[in-house]
Amino acid sequence: MARTYKIKESFYTLQGEGAQAGRAAVFLRFAGCNLWSGREEDRSGAVCQFCDTDFIGTDGQNGGRYTLQECADLVASLWPGGGTPYVVCTGGEPLLQLDEPLIQALHDRGFEVAVETNGTVVVPESIDWVCVSPKANAKLVVTVGDELKLVYPQPEWGAQPPAFTDLGFTHFFLQPKDEPGTDNTPAVVGYCMAHPQWRISLQTHKMMGID
Ligand SMILES: C[S@@+](CC[C@H](N)C(=O)[O-])C[C@H]1O[C@@H](n2cnc3c(N)ncnc32)[C@H](O)[C@@H]1O
Ligand SMILES: Nc1nc2[nH]cc(C(=O)O)c2c(=O)[nH]1
Ligand code: SF4
Ligand SMILES: [Mg+2]
């Protein structure tokens, strides 16, 4: 049997975060993560505890188990035409599944391929845009890329911004941690003003009310 990719959901929207914020993109959300099961009862014991995303299963919009060609065709079918087709592979942790053949199939359909990763899995060579979001207590193996986007604050030792500023990224972003009852934006504003190497990344899709 041919291998299949387990896709939680796929939809057309605007990239909300980081240096590509505002750009039209197809999101391809892979099911599953290596830092949390995705079950609420496991959250407090997980390596990554602040996740804002449901990535369990294949029950989302356009979700399912897809072969290589089916998966690339799905992404292509969601692009409206015009511009430079752009797909953001996310999750869950996309690099548990995204591989060179799927990237190639997306390139064959004219797409630039971006990834949002927690940085614990080696990135395939041919990806066009790499966004790494390090997590406290998870070993970072991806130390070069286009943007490093650190969710802030992460109180744990080892996840403070200075731990990352010498790494090989073009852009350094702090993204306010979205958590119930706390507005972390002022802390990020203060940090970026005191440390100009960092820029703020707001989750603009949440403000716009889009996926
Ligand atoms: C859901 S993750 C999926 C990709 C990958 N597993 C990762 O962590 O980068 C997508 C992005 O959302 C960020 N994120 C997750 N939960 C967040 C929260 N509560 N507040 C702000 N950003 C969050 C992650 O750090 C990451 O940059
Ligand atoms: N619009 C939009 N932008 C995003 N940037 C990163 C996202 C993610 O969940 O990986 C995301 C998302 O879920 N929606
Ligand atoms: S690593 Fe990414 S997908 Fe996994 S739990 Fe953390 S934020 Fe969510
Ligand atoms: Mg999201």
From TrEMBL:
PROSITE patterns: RADICAL_SAM. Substrate binds at residues 14-16, 29, 90. Pfam families: Radical_SAM. Its EC number is 4.3.99.3. Binds 1 [4Fe-4S] cluster. The cluster is coordinated with 3 cysteines and an exchangeable S-adenosyl-L-methionine. Binds 1 S-adenosyl-L-methionine per subunit. It catalyses: 6-carboxy-5,6,7,8-tetrahydropterin + H(+) = 7-carboxy-7-carbaguanine + NH4(+). [4Fe-4S] cluster binds at residues 33, 48, 51. Homodimer. Belongs to the radical SAM superfamily. 7-carboxy-7-deazaguanine synthase family. This is 7-carboxy-7-deazaguanine synthase. It comes from Neolewinella antarctica. The gene is queE.
